[in-house]
Inverse folding.
């Protein structure tokens, strides 16, 4: 049951968010190392490390960086996706709030590697304290010469802006984020062309997640072999697993990629009250739910995919046997209906109608045809929109029906109002079950 | 508070952060700025943004209406947001919302008649490990239950400013909106406000208990250069004017998983045990 604090290692150090303390703990060392090595060596190092994007898609980071055309005479940009907001996902917010300089250190190294002289952190609007700490850290880094002109005498210039969003989950989608950063409605762009060639201001742009970029200094400092000593062959390194919901000690657990839920639950004290595990998401609300059958699935990108879901952001929402799956699915579908940007008809209309069907079923007015209607609607949404929000929106429904067919079949029968469970907007099966859980 | 020359000067300061010719990138922070000045995004605020950037008012309005944090009606002194999404819902977030809604007599996106509190149910607030969570002007009150939440809004109504569990001491909606526009929090105590309680460091605590000393547990590899034993860091090393509150409260936090860690509202009465 290994725990491997790397990104989280300094989180208990008092005042680690200040430059003095951060520097005393090895902070910004990797910037000097990177300048000594040169940008191409850094790209190669990140490529060799096997680091894959921690924002959900798992795309190889070094490869993404190498797609940036060099010597093209265009400005290059690094944009950090800090728009954390998917239900279950809560790893970047603490990183930015507690250890903001670690992100800035990674930004300097990454920008140097891809020859970007401007970087932006697009931080979710609601995360005021994270933005506050990041702005303070940015100002400190400027004063110390880690940002600005001719950083540490290297000849490399970098300007960094901390840009707060304004409340839209869709802006976590990288092209919607770029549109938002350009001062527009956050709606996704058609790809190709990809941001690597046509990103921010139509220029070559790397968009990376907070955790991904914060991993880079450790790779630069400790080397490829060290990084690969953790995790699995195809998903190396440590990963911050976020456990929430019905678990005894919810929180952030940094462990090697490929750790299983069984191991993580052991670390976190198990399901609350010793109850049975009913369902869980491996990577946030957009990843298909799994069940107790999947306790030993290695939680890395390929392992979870083989089990029929996605690692996503490794946000494990744990649900015990008191939950009503119909309510869970309805709640998550409401989220997607609210957050759909409205650009693509299947997503905009589909999510809205599916909420209505699920709510009607909850009120005891289900119809046996509802399951087919829902499945059919999901078929017509998945893969039929500009971005992955639509694909994520169908995950709770499809996986809910797949793993809990009896519950959905029962809910698809008309029931007398007093037997319907739509009285509460919560997600528990009923007052009796909930009381028993406390 | 009307828009002034000072607002326009601040708007130009925002524009200057972005590359020349890319003024429109300043729009989101500028909308936060005009909201800071007027309590919501007004027609005048839209107009100011449009003029300073050089786009049409319609283009600005299209953006302002897309994002949930831009309000079209004046927000109360305190924007109270309760997360009712899945992790919070599993832990009673909906019940927390229902209790406060009943107590205040207002629903989602509505303001109390005295103009003190605007209530909203929020989509996920990226604090799932602290569920159920709520925020007041975007500062975190973690692990609340119905009683604690009710106590918190009662305290706000009495004019008190209970400390958040994570974040800076409460400031006004105007002040926080100005920070959203990209201006630094002028209060040292704002920046120093606590950044974590036990859930954020649950894995780290486990590693420490297992004898981890800045090395990668379960692996023979050397630990990251930046990691040193936490015990070796004397708190006194931190400049006194910047003593962070981080960690100061973690000892007072009940075992993580008990959804009642709310030192925020002294007057709170717990409605149920954990």
């Amino acid at each position: 049951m290994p725990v491997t604090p790397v990104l989280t290692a300094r989180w208990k150090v008092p005042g680690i968010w200040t430059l003095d303390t951060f520097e005393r703990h090895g902070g910004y060392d990797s910037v000097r190392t990177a300048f000594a090595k040169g940008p191409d060596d850094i790209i190669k190092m990140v490529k060799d490390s096997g680091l894959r994007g921690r924002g959900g898609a798992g795309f190889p980071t070094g490869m993404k960086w190498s797609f940036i055309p060099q010597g093209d005479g265009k400005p290059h940009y690094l944009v950090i996706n800090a728009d954390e907001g998917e239900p279950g996902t809560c790893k970047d917010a603490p990183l930015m709030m507690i250890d903001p300089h670690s992100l800035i250190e990674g930004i300097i190294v990454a920008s140097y590697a891809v020859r970007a002289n401007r970087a932006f952190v697009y931080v979710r609007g609601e995360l005021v304290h994270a933005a506050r700490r990041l702005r303070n850290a940015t100002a400190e880094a400027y004063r110390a010469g880690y940002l600005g002109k001719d950083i540490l005498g290297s000849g490399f210039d970098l300007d960094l802006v901390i840009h707060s969003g304004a409340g839209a989950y869709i802006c976590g989608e990288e092209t919607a984020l770029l549109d938002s950063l350009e001062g527009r409605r956050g709606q996704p762009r058609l790809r190709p062309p990809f941001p690597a060639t046509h990103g921010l201001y139509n220029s070559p742009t790397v968009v990376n997640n907070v955790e991904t970029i914060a991993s880079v200094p450790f790779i630069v400092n400790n080397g490829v072999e060290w990084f690969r000593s953790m995790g699995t062959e195809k998903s190396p390194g440590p990963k911050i697993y976020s456990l929430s919901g019905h678990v005894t000690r919810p929180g952030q657990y940094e462990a090697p990629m490929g750790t299983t839920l069984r191991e993580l639950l052991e670390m976190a004290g198990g399901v609350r009250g010793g109850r049975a595990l009913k369902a869980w998401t491996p990577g946030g609300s957009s990843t298909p739910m799994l069940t107790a059958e999947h306790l030993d699935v290695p939680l890395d990108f390929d392992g979870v995919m083989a089990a029929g879901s996605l690692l996503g952001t490794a946000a494990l929402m744990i649900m015990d046997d008191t939950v009503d799956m119909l309510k869970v699915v309805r709640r998550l579908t409401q989220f997607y209906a609210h957050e759909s940007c409205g650009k693509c008809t299947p997503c905009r209309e589909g999510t809205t109608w599916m909420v209505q069907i699920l709510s009607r079923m909850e009120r005891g007015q289900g119809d046996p045809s509802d399951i087919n209607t829902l499945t059919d609607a999901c078929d017509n949404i998945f893969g039929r929109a500009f971005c992955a929000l639509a694909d994520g929106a169908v995950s709770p429904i499809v996986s809910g029906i797949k793993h809990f067919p009896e519950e959905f079949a029962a809910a698809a029968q008309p029931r007398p109002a007093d037997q319907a469970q739509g009285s509460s907007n919560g997600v528990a099966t009923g007052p009796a079950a909930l009381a028993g859980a406390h | 508070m009307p828009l002034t020359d000072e607002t326009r000067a601040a708007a130009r300061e925002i524009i200057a952060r972005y590359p020349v010719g890319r003024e429109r990138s300043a729009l989101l922070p500028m909308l936060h700025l005009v909201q800071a000045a007027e309590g919501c995004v007004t027609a005048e605020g839209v107009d100011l943004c449009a003029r300073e950037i050089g786009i049409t008012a319609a283009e600005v309005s299209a953006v302002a209406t897309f994002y949930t944090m831009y309000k079209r009606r004046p927000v109360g002194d305190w924007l109270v947001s309760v997360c009712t999404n899945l992790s919070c819902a599993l832990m009673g977030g909906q019940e927390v919302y229902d209790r406060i809604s009943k107590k205040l007599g207002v629903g989602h996106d509505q303001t109390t008649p005295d103009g003190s509190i605007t209530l909203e149910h929020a989509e996920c607030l990226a604090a799932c490990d602290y569920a159920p969570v709520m925020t007041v002007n975007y500062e975190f009150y973690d692990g609340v239950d119905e009683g604690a939440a009710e106590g918190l809004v009662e305290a706000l109504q009495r004019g008190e400013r209970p400390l958040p569990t994570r974040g800076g001491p409460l400031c006004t909606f105007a002040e926080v909106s100005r920070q959203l526009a990209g201006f630094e929090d002028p209060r040292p105590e704002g920046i120093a406000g606590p950044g974590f309680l036990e859930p954020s460091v649950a894995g780290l605590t486990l590693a420490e208990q297992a004898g981890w000393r800045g090395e990668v547990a379960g692996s023979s590899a050397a630990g990251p250069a930046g990691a040193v034993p936490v015990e070796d860091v004397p708190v006194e090393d931190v400049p006194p004017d910047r003593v962070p509150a981080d960690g100061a409260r973690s000892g007072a936090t009940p075992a993580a998983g008990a959804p009642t860690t709310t030192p925020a509202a002294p007057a709170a009465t717990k409605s149920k045990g954990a």
Q: What stands out?
A: DSSP finds ten helices and five strands in chain B. Residues 215-274 of chain B have pLDDT under 50 and may be disordered. The domain at 75-173+184-216+223-274 of chain B is CATH 3.40.30.10 (Glutaredoxin). The longest strand of chain B covers residues 78-83.
